[in-house]
C-alpha cells in the first residue's frame, strides 16, 4: 500500500487537536500515554509500519501540545488590566476603551455590531476594584488608561435615525474611543442549546462591550499602512459591489445575487434562505470550492483567449485567487478552496502536480496551524469532509453506476457521495434532512453554478461599465432566479419528505463513515467481479484446457463474489441499524420527563411520556413594545424565541412529531413561539383555552392550525387526556359557560382563562397553571371543595383522546410533587390558600434573566418558602428537567447556581 506521510500526519494532527479539545490537562496526558503505548506495540509488531507510527505519534503529541498552548493563551486580560480579582468583578462595570475597529461594521435596525481590538482600558465611576483614591468627578476615569491587547464584541444601541446613519460611516481600521459597560456573553441555557460564549471564545473574544448610543463612540480615520488598511479597502470594495448589485438587480434578486457572487448574505430574503436550507442547498448561497473552481476555470479560459502561455496563465490565476478569497468574505470553505487552488496551480506550473488528498491535507494543516479553532467551525468541517469524501468515495461508487451513461453517472456519483458524506454533520448541526435533497442538488447545483452564477457575474461586470447593458443581462439572470425559486418552493411543498434527527454522537458518526466505506468498497468489488464473470464466457479458451481444469478458477471467482456481496450487505445492514437508532428521539429509558425550557420571559414546557409521546405546553414568544413610528429600529431578522430557541431545541432532541401542543392562553409570551413550531414540526392535536385573544398573531396561529388540518380542542374544566397508559391529564380550568364553549369569545385579559391541568405520570404529580390569577385560583378551589369537578369529569365524558385512567377525585386529593408557579412568579397569583391546598414538594418558576417586571415577586417566594417547597428558576438555573420513574423524581438543571 502506498504510504502518504502528509495525509497521515494531517489526519493525526486533527485527531490530536480533537482529543485536546475534548479533554485537557491530566486526562489528555493519560490519553496520549495510552496512544503512545498502543503505537509502540504496533510498531514492534510490524516493523514496516514503524515510520508511520512515528509520524502518527509526532502529530498527536505536537497537535495536543499546540492546542493546549493556544488554550492557555486564549484568556481574557481585561480583569488584570482593570485590577480586578476575577471576571465576575468587572461583569457589568462601566469602562472606557480605546482601540481600533477590527471587523466590518454591521448596522441592523437600532444596533451596530463590530469587533474592537482594544489597546487601552480604564474603569469609569469606580465600578471595579481599581478605583483610585484621587478619582475625579462622576463620569470620569478613575486613573490612567492601562495597556491591554484583547478583542471585544461591541454592541451599540442606536437611539435615532441620525445615529443609524452615523454608524454606517464607521469602518474597519477606524480608531475608536468608546464608553460603555462590559458583559460576559451568554452561555447555553438549555441542554443542547447554542453556546454563544463558547462560540466567541473560538474567535478569541471573551467580552461584550455595550454602548448606549452612538454619542458614546468617537471614531477617526486610521493613519499608516498595514493589513488592517488592506482589509478596510476590501470592505469598501465589497460594499461597492453590493451597492452596484442593488442598482442592477431588483429585490429579492439583489440579496440573492449578493450571496451567490460575493458571499454577502445580510440582505438575503429570510424566506428564500429558509426554503434553500430545508432542501440542503445553503452551500450554494455561500462561496465554496465550486465557486472558486468556476472562477479559476473562467480566468484560465479568458487568458487562453488572450493567447497567454500556460505558465503565465497559471501564475496570474494563482496571484488572483487571494483577491477572490478576500472579496468573497474569507470564510473557512473559501480559504480552503483558495489554498488548494494555489497549491494545485503552483504544482501544475512546476509539472509536479500531486494527488488531491495531499493538496487537501496541506491546506488543512496550514489553516489549523494559522488558527487551530478552525477545527470547530462548521464551514471548515463540512468543506474538508465533503472534499475528502468525494476523493475517497466517488471512485468506489463509479463501478456501481456503470449502467448509466458516463456523464450522468459522474454527476450522480458526485451528488450522491456529497449527500452521503455531509449527512452526519448536517443532522448533527442542523437536525434535519430532506429526502428530496439529492434531487434538488442534482438539478439546481449545476444549474445555478454554471448558468445563474456566470450570467449574474457577467451582469455585474457589464453593469459596472454600462448600467443599462448590465440591467438587460440582469433581467435574464432574474428570470433564471425565478425558475430556481419556483423549483425550490415546489419541492418544499412536500414537507413529509423533511426528516428531523437528534444530534448523533461522535461514535455514531465514525461508525457511519466506516460502514459507508465498507458498503462502497465491497460493493465496488462485487460489481467488478460480476462484470468480469459476465464477460468470461465469451472469452477464447484453448481447446487443450479441459473443462475440469477450469472449474476451480470459476468456483474461486464465485466464492470471491459471494464474500464481496456479504461484505456489502453487512455494511448496508450496519448503516440501516445506525440510521434507525439515530432517527429515534431522545428517550429516558422508561422514565417520563418534564422539561421546563428557558425561553426568557415566557413559558415553554416539553413533556415526554414513558411510552415516548411528546406534549408541548406553550411556546414562549418575543414581546415587542415598538411603536409604528419606530419602524427604522426593525432588524432584518429580528430575534424570535420560537424560531431561534424552541424549534432548534426540539429538533436537536430528535422530536419529529408532537402528539399535542397545549396553548394555555393567547398572550404572546406563551403563544408566540407556537407559530414556528406549527410551521416546522408535525403536530397531532392543538389544545387551547377556548377563547380568542383578539390579536393578529393569535389569529395567524389558529389559522395555521386549521390550514394544516390539525385537530383543535377548546379546553375547559372537566375534560381529560390520556396520551399513553402511564400518563394522564385532568383539566381544572378554565371554567367556561356552555355559551362560551360554543362561541369562542374574544377575551383581551387572557390570564384568568389560562388552561390549568394536573399531570400524573409514572406516579409523579405535576400542576401546570399558565398565567392564572387569584380569582381563577379561588374558582378552582371552590369546585374542588364542593366536589363538582369530579362530577363534571364523570358527567361530561369528554376527553381529547381517551378517558382518564382514574377519577378526578382520586387524582386531586394527594399533594403534588411539582407546581409550575403561575405568571412567572407575579404577585397576582400563587396565593397562600392555593399553595396550601396542593402542598408542593417543589416549585418551578419560568422567568427571564433581569426581566423588566421584577419576576418572581418576593412575596411569592416567601409564600413558597413557608410551604417548605424547593424552588427552581429558569432565570437562575436555565433549563430544569424532572425525570419521573416509579414515583421517584430526579432533577437536573443546566446551570449550577452558587449557594
UniProtKB/TrEMBL annotation:
Q: What is the lineage of its organism?
A: Bacteria, Bacillati, Bacillota, Bacilli, Bacillales
Designated name of the protein: Competence protein ComEC
Query: Topology versus the membrane, per the UniProt entry?
Result: Multi-pass membrane protein
Just give the chief location class. membrane
Disordered, as annotated region: 125-147
Q: What does this protein do?
A: Counteracts the endogenous Pycsar antiviral defense system. Phosphodiesterase that enables metal-dependent hydrolysis of host cyclic nucleotide Pycsar defense signals such as cCMP and cUMP.
Keywords, sorted A to Z: Cell membrane, Membrane, Transmembrane, Transmembrane helix
**PROSITE patterns documented for this protein:** PROKAR_LIPOPROTEIN (PS51257)
Q: What reaction(s) does this enzyme catalyze?
A: 3',5'-cyclic UMP + H2O = UMP + H(+); 3',5'-cyclic CMP + H2O = CMP + H(+)
Q: Which Gene3D superfamilies match?
A: Ribonuclease Z/Hydroxyacylglutathione hydrolase-like
SUPFAM superfamilies recorded for this chain?
Answer: Metallo-hydrolase/oxidoreductase
